[in-house]
Amino acid sequence: MFTDDELAERLRAGDEKALRTAYERHGAAVLYLAQRLLRNRADAEDVTQLTFVAAWSGRDSFDPQRGTLLGWLLGIARRKAIDRIRAAVRDDRVAETVRAQLAPPEQPELPERIVDRLLVADELGRLPAEQRRTLELAFFDDLTHPQIAAVTGLPLGTVKSHIRRGLANLRRRWEVDGAASGSRSAGSTRAR
Hints:
Elements (H helix, E strand, L loop, with lengths): L3 H9 L3 H23 L2 H17 L11 H33 L9 H16 L2 H12 L4 H8 L3 H21 L16
Helix pairs in contact: 1-2, 2-3, 2-4, 3-4, 5-8, 6-8, 7-8
């Protein structure tokens, strides 16, 4: 059985068994701190795992002259818990903003708008799958081009091309099929 100083030295040297031993020895304390800060067992377990992953990744930064192994791990856990809290606050703000924007309309939707939506949905269904997916991500999920590239794994230029060609196909079909006869309430497209 190693002392914490020996354990820290082995961890810094890249000994995976030392990481496991550190987890067995100090994981409960890290979990306890995370649970006290987050008040949620599942989030605390995630933070505990992130703490030990970060400890392994940053093992070179541990300096036994500045504190104990447990103190170092608890410091990492505290930062990870604060990051989780901040992310939750951001998510709550985003959700609140979305809820505020999704307030029910004060007047019933006009039949022409419903027809336009159905026509657009039908036309989207006729597009090639990748064009349709990029358009849906851009306009229904409100993602930027770089975000779409990250989600789909497509190069940014390909995403832009799919959106441009998809919009051109929709416009061409809209005009050729006469889908807009008398109603153009579907609105203009935004540039990204």
